[in-house]
Amino acid sequence: LAREEKVTIVVQVNGKIRDRFEAPRDLPEDQVKQKALELKRIQDYTADKTPRKIVYIPNKLINIVV
Fold first, then answer.
1. Is the pLDDT of residue 2 over 80?
2. Model confidence over 39-61: pLDDT tens digits?
3. pLDDT at residue 1, rounded to an integer
């Protein structure tokens, strides 16, 4: 009843916190990945690199390994 409709997703690159963004609760994993990869600060860290693995913990965290 009293739970938040929006959550803050922490974005990590290689295990280090680089950014965060607000998203609706229970947003599908593919949309969260897309939003995270579109962030300007994240694009700076992943420029000219292909993400090898993306770990997503629902409603909390996304870690991009490059």
1. no
2. 999 999 999 899 999 999 999 99
3. 62
- Cα separation values, 65 from 6, 26, 45, 57, Å: 25, 23, 10, 14
Residue 28, judged by CB atoms within 10 A of its CB (0-12, 13-18, 19+), counts as exposed
How distant is the alpha carbon of residue 28 from its chain centre? 12
What's the CA gap between 61 and 42, in Å, rounded? 14
Residue for token digits 């969260």? 32
pTM above 0.85, yes or no: yes
Block residue for tokens 């990590």: 12
